[in-house]
Design brief:
47% of the residues lie in helices and 19% in strands. The protein contains six helices and five strands. This is AAA family ATPase.
């Protein structure tokens, strides 16, 4: 059986991390990387040097997981909003013998607003997240990925959809 690289992307607040943590518990021989862990800095600064650094960090970690003889599933989630960013990651990976699944989690704008508002109320996100997410919402629709609508579904249901997708 081939190794499986499962890339879960989607807009900030759609539930990528929550679904991936759930999948991680359900999949044996699974490694899990959150893209944000490869670019945690204060203050958060977006520039060419930092963009290059985060791609290098992500691809180093993913290649290490792929090479590990214990790995069967490699989960990766991040706010990848364009096919160009996805390509810049994939072209740096050793994908020989690896099945790649590019999955975008989606939800309605109304549901996203509720989720982000809830996160802001809990102190998980800052107030600017709403505007940033809504301004990038349509970018995810354009990507060449498998779309999974998360409206009116539980975390377990979302995870089971992905498990069925990757395991047939």
């Amino acid at each position: 059986m081939s190794k499986k690289l499962i890339i879960i992307n989607g807009i900030m607040g759609v539930g990528k991390s929550t679904v991936c943590r759930n999948l991680y518990k359900k999949l044996d021989n699974c490694f899990f990387l959150e893209g944000d862990d490869c670019w945690r800095m204060n203050p958060f600064t977006v520039n060419d040097e930092n963009k290059k650094m985060v791609i290098e960090n992500i691809t180093y970690m993913l290649n290490s997981f792929i090479k590990n003889s214990s790995s069967k599933y490699i989960l990766f989630n991040w706010v990848i909003q364009t096919d160009e960013i996805m390509k810049s990651i994939l072209e740096r990976l050793d994908l020989d013998g690896v099945d790649v699944y590019r999955i975008t989690l989606m939800c309605s704008r109304e549901e996203l607003e509720k989720r982000i508002a809830g996160d802001i109320a809990k102190g998980i996100r800052d107030s600017g997240c709403m505007e940033r997410s809504m301004s990038q919402y349509d970018l995810y629709k354009k990507m060449h990925t498998i779309k999974i609508n998360t409206d009116n579904t539980t975390i377990d249901e979302r995870s089971e959809m992905i498990i069925k997708l990757i395991n047939g």
